[in-house]
Amino acid sequence: MELTAVAPIYLSPRPALPLPARRAARRPSFACRCSCSPDASTGASRRLFASFLAAAAAVGVGAPGGEAGAVSTSRRALRASKIPESEFTTLPNGLKYYDIKVGSGAEAVKGSRVAVHYVAKWKGITFMTSRQGLGVGGGTPYGFDVGNSERGNVLKGLDLGVEGMKVGGQRLIIVPPELAYGKKGVQEIPPNATIELDVELLSIKQSPFGTPVKIVEG
To answer: Is-annotated flag, keyword Membrane (predicted)?
Structure first.
């Protein structure tokens, strides 16, 4: 199945990480258009602790290097299990990250409109992923504007964790409770839970000043 990247990002209700309950109603999300139809069933992808099938390769919308730059979820999970937490970089806000691969494209900064693939886990169990879907790549990339977490539009840990990444990069992020679901939790995620994100930055559609930027392609 051939996937075609196009410049516009359009509004779509999926696939988005669940937000803390008090802000869940305010979230918008964006998705990258491709030639294949997204999976019509949204209920299964939204149920926590569902058994998602890992895609064999990333969709590669705007990502450099084509297949060579794509890393399957299973391979990244294997590498993540071998990386001690002491090797992660810790930010002042408590977020920790480790770059599996540093991208060579444009850098995500506040105001950038980004498209990513992500896998979200709690205690090693996948509870949400953008990679679930039909086709070789699988899933629909999730898009958002960096810096929008203060408005309740995107999970803080994902928003802050993507900042500084470059297109084509892959990053593991350890998100403390205060940047995830806090003292209340959400659905089956308990209060004060630390979650892990496995993120791949696929493309950047807009600069922080509203000027379109070129998508870096392989």
So the answer is: no
- Best CA proximity match to 44, nearest among 123, 139, 186: 139
In this prediction, residue 137 carries a pLDDT of 59
CATH T-level fold of 9-206: Chitinase A; domain 3 (3.10.50)
Surface-to-core class of residue 97, CB atoms within 10 Å of its CB (0-12 exposed, 13-18 middle, 19+ buried): buried
pTM of the complete model beyond 0.85:
no
How many beta carbons lie within 10 A of that of residue 152, not counting itself?
16
> How high is the pLDDT of residue 188?
87
CB 47 within 8 A of CB 14: no
Q: For the chain, which residues make up each domain, given as ranges? A: 9-206
CB 180, CB 94: distance < 8 Å:
no
- Which residue, among 172, 169, 156, has the nearest Cα to 203 in the 3D structure? 169
- Provide φ and ψ at 199, rounded to 5°: -120, 140
CA distance 98 to 3: 29
> 30 has which bridge partners?
11, 143
105-132: pLDDT as tens digits: 999 999 999 999 999 999 999 999 998 7
Smallest CA-to-CA distance from 144 within 159, 131, 129 is with 159
* Secondary structure string (H, E, C) spanning 53-93: CCCCCCCCCCCCCHHHHCCCHHHHHHHHHCCCHHHCEECCC
